[in-house]
Here is the input.
Amino acid sequence: MEVPVWAVWLGGSTALYFVDRIYRNYRWSLLLKANAKLDTGNLEDCLEFADAASNRFPNDWQPLVTASCACLQLDEPEKALSFLSSAEKLVKKVPPELLQNRAVARAMLLDPSGALEDASLALKNGRTKTRLLTQTYVYVQLHRYTEALETCNEAMNLVPDSDCLLNRCWIYLGLNNLDAAKVDCTLAFQNLSSAAKPREVAFALQTNAIILSFDDMFSAAVEEQTRAMELVRDDPWMFINRAYYLSVAGDLDKALLDVDRADELAKSNYTRGYILSNRARISILKNELERARLLAEEAVSRCGRPAILCTRAATYMLTGRLVEAQRDLDNAEQLDPMHSEIYWWKGRLLDIQGNVEEADQEKQKALKWHYRPYF
Here is the structure.
């Protein structure tokens, strides 16, 4: 009996279908698992699956980029750059996903020019929301808030979601526009879907905690930050922020516990600089001024951001080193003239020098821009 042609075709097609399914499962299953773990915040598991995927297909750049995403969330920009460097060797043309991640890593490592170059190159492949928000992040790190706002608004025009709203909220905080920040934060919560990832919800809660602190509501800020920490337990910045609120509220012992935990989680000099700055501020509040100065000096050596320069300026001022304090405040103002804390300490310095009227003007400027003195 002859087998009908259609049966041969059907049998062959079915076999090819299953072969294709088996290959696709073999080809993509590990990478898909890595990306799924990344989405749910299981970052160590993500790295494990990404490593397995890379070992299975060593010429595929995608698992390496996924691994770099996990490293960035784990506060390991150097490790992220290592993965991205390996990925770049596997491609003829650098994909925009690689450029985006490298821009973020470079910004975290205080390489703003390199970060901006990568973010701009990524946008040449198409002005998508993710690429625009990457450039927004770099502009914020450079304290170029007006350009950050323009770029974020362009992303909002494409996809007006909570992610864009929260990014714009941080820009408004940098511009000292607290009212606009509050509006965007409220809208962001309203736009969060029931399927929002834990890190997205935690980011919204953390942003609201900062806004509460600007309104002198530090106990409420602690509560909001704690809610965020229940969703994300491996981010050192969760503990750094709560430590600050606790210290201003006067609970120095709990603040130190949070700083210690942040220290255990931190891996980059950028983050360790802020941890040391927090320790220095707590030491100021405990009147351990020499210890505060040493901590602040180490903090600046790791990360010379305006807030950290202000901490060192405060320790210099309180230990009688007024020239060094003035230098740090001038450098901080050059980096970010919108950073309100600068003007509080400039006012304190002018007080010491006897320029009472000018001192009051500087301090009023800081208070107008929502700075809340911790000392």
Observations:
- The radius of gyration is 25 Å.
- The chain has a mean pLDDT of 91.
